[in-house]
């Protein structure tokens, strides 16, 4: 829920940071309450107050809180990791999805193989397994990749290959 | 590989955009070649030239190309989706990881159950399955979540619940 510091005597965190008077129509006030000064400081450092103000004015009022929160998340990620920011998370998650998908395919193949050996006439069991496998094959996985491509995968792969906990001891080559 | 427009007569894309002389020590030139004008335009619109320059000066030269590329990726994502930017991708990928992990757990449980019914004395098979299950249980999944939390999950979940292809027809409640 967006705060509304206009109703209190305190200027919003943005106006306090920028040392300006917080007017009733302040674009920042509903999303940067005075009790969260770091939220605005981070967003300001990474995106700049002017860019954030422009962006908020270009989107619908009911989407502004989500926009501010996603900007704050990106800003915090960039401050923690100046080189990769939250794009590092996308790279790690994409590789995790690929690994889980491969593992699921292999496990389903094992299940089909053992089931067809153990119950040669049980078509109900193999049909059930077939349904489960088809949920994750091809299309939906392709859609998420088409929508969020990582054009610089090789650099991030190298960067994450040695020191990231996600890569430690997973037993894959 | 970073380009180096200093060696040509053309100013880099940043200096051309900012209408300034591209000097030999230009911080932007190696990463914003004149043949990619949109790369700088996007980054400038979202982060601002001054913030990008500051960020590049704060990190090691051998990491600057990766930093510019991740900034360009974030900027493009924010221009395509002004409300969620690339944080939308993180949210979708995180839910995909959770779904795949649940599916893998269920498939492994099926495999263990059918195998123990079909081969009551085959400890080699159940040990093999146990190893596969332990690869993805608990710790590594927890690590990626601890490192990249999504503090505003509920809003994004609502936003993505109806119209995203990732959610279409997956058969889950």
Number of domains of chain A: 2
**Strand proportion of chain A:** under 5%
Work out the helix count of chain A: 8
Largest interface: A-B, 69 and 69 residues
Oligomer: homodimer
Pfam family, one (chains A, B): LOB
Organism (chains A, B): Cinchona calisaya
Family (chains A, B): Belongs to the LOB domain-containing protein family.
Protein name (chains A, B): LOB domain-containing protein
Can you tell me about this structure?
- Two copies of one chain form a homodimer.
- The first copy, chain A, has helices at 13-18, 37-47, 49-58, 64-80, 87-118, 123-135, 139-147, 153-161.
- By secondary structure, chain A is an all-alpha fold.
- The first copy, chain A, folds into two domains: 13-80, no CATH class; 87-159, no CATH class.
- Chain A is elongated and about 80 Å long.
Key phrases:
homodimer, 173 residues, mainly alpha, 8 helices, 0% strand, disordered C terminus, LOB domain-containing protein (chains A, B), LOB (chains A, B)
In short:
Chain A contains eight helices and no strands. Chain A is mainly alpha-helical.
Please give the structural blueprint.
The structure is a homodimer of 173-residue chains.
Chain A: H1 13-18, H2 37-47, H3 49-58, H4 64-80, H5 87-118, H6 123-135, H7 139-147, H8 153-161
């Amino acid at each position: 829920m967006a705060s509304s510091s206009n109703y209190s005597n305190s200027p919003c965190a943005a106006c306090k940071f920028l040392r300006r008077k917080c007017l009733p129509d302040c674009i920042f006030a509903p999303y940067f309450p005075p009790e969260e000064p770091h939220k605005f400081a981070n967003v300001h450092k990474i995106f700049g107050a002017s860019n954030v103000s422009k962006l908020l004015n270009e989107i619908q009022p009911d989407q502004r809180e989500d926009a501010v929160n996603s900007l704050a998340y990106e800003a915090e990620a960039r401050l923690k990791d100046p080189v990769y920011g939250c794009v590092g998370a996308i790279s790690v998650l994409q590789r995790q999805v690929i690994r889980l998908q491969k593992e699921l395919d292999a496990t389903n193949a094992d299940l089909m193989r053992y089931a067809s050996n153990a119950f040669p006439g049980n078509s109900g069991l193999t049909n059930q397994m077939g349904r489960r496998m088809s949920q994750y094959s091809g299309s939906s996985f392709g859609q998420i990749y088409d929508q969020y491509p990582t054009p610089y995968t090789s650099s991030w792969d190298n960067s994450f290959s040695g020191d990231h906990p996600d890569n430690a001891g997973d037993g894959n080559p």
